[in-house]
Amino acid sequence: MQRNRLVAPRNVVNTKQLYIFYILKKLYKGEEVFGNKILEDFRNKFENASLPYPVSSSTVYDTLYDLEERGYVNSKWLGDEFLNKRSKKIYTITNSGIDYYKNNISDYVDNLKKTKGILDIMIGMLL
């Protein structure tokens, strides 16, 4: 006997993917990006959300590291080299990063909208 069940899309609202596209968007627009700035942006944006959103420094820095490993961003340390004091690591977007962002952001946003649509249907079914 086959069961019928309602299946909601998974892995669309992926924290790391959101960080990836957010960071690339900021860089693509020419904004300065460093780890603490991204962390602060996310904390500010989600501080009043009805559910806690997983904002973690380890995920932010892991995402920046992955973007650099993929060749989508470059980084350099700012600070006083004479005193050997590094203050913050600043990121810039590469041509590969621009291509990745331009070629994938629409699909990601479309998937988020589809997920929201399904969730709206499910809520409507229950109210």
From TrEMBL:
InterPro entries: Tscrpt_reg_PadR_N, WH-like_DNA-bd_sf, WH_DNA-bd_sf
Coiled coil ranges: none
Transcription regulator PadR N-terminal domain sequence ranges: 24-101
Pfam family, one: PadR
Gene3D superfamilies listed in its UniProt record: Winged helix-like DNA-binding domain superfamily/Winged helix DNA-binding domain
Name of the protein in its database record: PadR family transcriptional regulator
Organism, as annotated: Clostridium intestinale URNW
